[in-house]
Amino acid sequence: MDFTLDDEQKEIRDWVRTFVRKEVVPLEPEVLRRERAGQPGLGRDELKALQDKAKAAGFFGVLTPREYGGMGLGAVMTALVEQELGRSFVPFRFGGYADNILFHGNEEQKRRYLLPTISGERVSCFAITEPGAGSDAKAIRTSARKEGGEWVVNGEKTFITQGHEADFVMVFAVTDKEKGAAGGVTCFLVDREMGWKSEPIPTMGQWGPAALVFDDVRVPEANVLGEVGQGFRLAMQWIGQGRYLLPARALGACERLVEMAVEQAKNRVAFGQPIAEYQAIQWMLADSAVEVEALRWLVLHAAWLVDQGADSRQAQSIAKLYGGIKANEIVDRVLQIHGGMGYTRELPIERWYRELRLLRIYEGTDEIQRRTIARNLLRGHAKVTGTLG
Ligand SMILES: Cc1cc2nc3c(=O)[nH]c(=O)nc-3n(C[C@H](O)[C@H](O)[C@H](O)COP(=O)(O)OP(=O)(O)OC[C@H]3O[C@@H](n4cnc5c(N)ncnc54)[C@H](O)[C@@H]3O)c2cc1C
């Protein structure tokens, strides 16, 4: 068992660490200033300019296969990259990324949707959630009926990330009510010009999703992604693509937060001595350090299983559940150690406090992760002794 990074992993991780320190972290005061004024933290052009800078240094398409111009770095390396990016709250991502299910498109679909998404010319969004169907995704009611050579889509989607910015949507609709999720749901690639409407949904965090409305939107038959009736499988594949990546980003945030808490504890004096001298503060630091360490190995283990092509579902759910819960506990402690300053918008702690809360909700709530973990044990798909047997 080797827990060290090899030279190449170290080199890539250090490059990202330096990029975040030199290019991303300096943007933080301006991002906070804009957000306080109710503006987006980073404009699309600014994001693109930063992505281009990274691309010029060869950093593009971390997970994207090399044949599509990406780096094809694999899961462990991507988790390490995400962790470094998570150290800043600036909403930056390297360019060259496309949703995994777009790789299932035919040649024409790849030309029109996959390649422009990778290059950053087009923005995609993924829409399964509806006002009446969230955790219970099988209950979706958006429908598509065939009329001549076209499909006519009707329904409403909600909480769609990038739904207001997207140029096209991968939308999931019922094409056979009898079969439902078992062969009766289809995924369509629908351009905004085909007529769907979006409305932003204000949230407590920076990721403003949108509600989408489909009112008799006509979609050519050529825009079915994969096969008619096989959409639910694609949706599950999308959701399962990187549950380890969400806690990986949170891990980076937690590392930075605990570092801030250590500094604050050493510098803040109360009752004649630094608060670091008080056991109440030390215990908060100690508990946070233990949890950060545990989360690191849960994330890397889940990513390692992905790289091995092994069944990683249990490990990914465990990392996502633990990461969501512990990141929220850690940011709360760090806010507490900062006292009143932690509660202000002068520091980014309250921002992380709001943002990390989302981790317990999207891409499977805590309760749904627990349900998955327990079911895997009860049905014998996973053992409590883990992958070592
Ligand atoms: C910011 C944001 C971005 C999002 N982005 C997207 C996106 O891009 N695309 C997309 O399709 N969706 C997206 N979602 C939707 C997200 O996946 C859902 O919000 C999530 O799956 C929960 O569904 P729900 O909100 O309908 O809650 P519900 O399913 O109504 O759940 C309500 C509560 O009941 C609990 N619950 C439900 N079922 C069970 C059960 N069987 N056992 C125990 N407890 C249960 C839940 O855990 C939760 O606590 C996003 C959501 C947010 C907030």
UniProtKB/TrEMBL annotation:
Domain of life: Bacteria
Presence of the UniProt keyword Flavoprotein in the record: yes
Cofactor: FAD
Domain Acyl-CoA dehydrogenase/oxidase N-terminal as annotated: residue spans: 7-121
Keyword Oxidoreductase tagged: yes
GO cellular component terms attached to this protein's record: cytoplasm
Acyl-CoA oxidase/dehydrogenase middle domain: residues covered: 125-217
Gene3D superfamilies attached to this UniProt entry: Acyl-CoA dehydrogenase/oxidase, N-terminal domain, Butyryl-CoA Dehydrogenase, subunit A, domain 2, Butyryl-CoA Dehydrogenase, subunit A, domain 3
Record-level Gene Ontology MF annotations: acyl-CoA dehydrogenase activity; flavin adenine dinucleotide binding
Pfam families, per database record: Acyl-CoA_dh_1, Acyl-CoA_dh_M, Acyl-CoA_dh_N
Acyl-CoA dehydrogenase/oxidase C-terminal domain: residues covered: 229-378
InterPro entries in UniProt: Acyl-CoA_dehydrogenase, Acyl-CoA_DH_CS, Acyl-CoA_Oxase/DH_mid-dom, Acyl-CoA_Oxase/DH_mid-dom_sf, AcylCo_DH-like_C, AcylCo_DH/oxidase_C, AcylCoA_DH/ox_N, AcylCoA_DH/ox_N_sf
Alphabetical keyword list: FAD, Flavoprotein, Oxidoreductase
GO biological process: fatty acid beta-oxidation using acyl-CoA dehydrogenase
PROSITE patterns hit by this protein: ACYL_COA_DH_1 (PS00072), ACYL_COA_DH_2 (PS00073)
Protein family (similarity comment): Belongs to the acyl-CoA dehydrogenase family.
Name of the protein in question: Medium-chain specific acyl-CoA dehydrogenase, mitochondrial
UniProt source species: Saccharothrix espanaensis (strain ATCC 51144 / DSM 44229 / JCM 9112 / NBRC 15066 / NRRL 15764)
